[in-house]
Amino acid sequence: MSKPSITDEQLELLRELANAASPPPWRSMVEGRDHRAGDAFIMMGREDDQDEDLYLNRDSGPASAADLDFVAAARNYIDALLDEVDRLRTELRLGCETRSDPA
C-alpha cells in the first residue's frame, strides 16, 4: 500500500478544527445574487437556530463570491469528507490484510 499524501495526524487535526468551528450549515449570502442590499456574508446555522453572521474581507475589501461559496461549502462537507477518507482507508487496510493473510 502506498503512503497516503495526507497523514492520519493531519486528518485528525482537520477533524479537531471542524469540531471546534461553528456547526453547519453555513450558507454563502452574496449581495445581488442571494439578497438585494447589504454586505456579502456567510449565514451560519439553521433558519430556526442562526448564529452570528460571518464576514470575510481581504485587504482590498469584501471577499469574492467564489471565496465565500468555497468557505461555506468546505464547512458543510468537511465532516463527510473526513468520514469518507476514514472509510476508504479502513477498506484498504482490510483488503491488504486479507491479501497478505495466508489462509
Strand coverage percent: 15-25%
Calculate the mean pLDDT score and round it: 91
Inertia-based shape: elongated
Query: Main β-sheet, in a few words?
Result: 3 strands, antiparallel
Q: In which range does the helix fraction lie?
A: 40-55%
Identify low-pLDDT runs: none
- Helix and strand succession? HEEEEEH
Report on the architecture of this protein.
With 103 residues, the chain is α+β, with helices and mostly antiparallel strands. The protein has a domain at 22-92. The chain is 48% helix and 16% strand. The chain is built from two helices and five strands. The chain has helices spanning 8-20, 65-100, and strands spanning 26-29, 41-46, 49-50, 57-58, 61-62. A three-stranded antiparallel beta sheet has the order 1-2-3. A two-stranded antiparallel ribbon has the order 4-5. A hairpin with a 2-residue loop joins strand 2 and strand 3 (49-50). Helix 1 packs across helix 2. The longest helix is centred in the C-terminal third of the chain and has 36 residues, at 65-100. The protein starts with 7 loop residues before the first helix and ends with a helix.
Give a quick summary of the entry.
The chain has 103 residues and is of the alpha+beta class.
Name some characteristics of this structure.
2 helices, elongated, 103 residues, 3-stranded antiparallel beta sheet, two-stranded antiparallel ribbon, alpha+beta
Q: Topology of this structure?
A:
Elements: H1 8-20, E1 26-29, E2 41-46, E3 49-50, E4 57-58, E5 61-62, H2 65-100
Antiparallel strand pairs: 1-2, 2-3, 4-5
Helix pairs in contact: 1-2
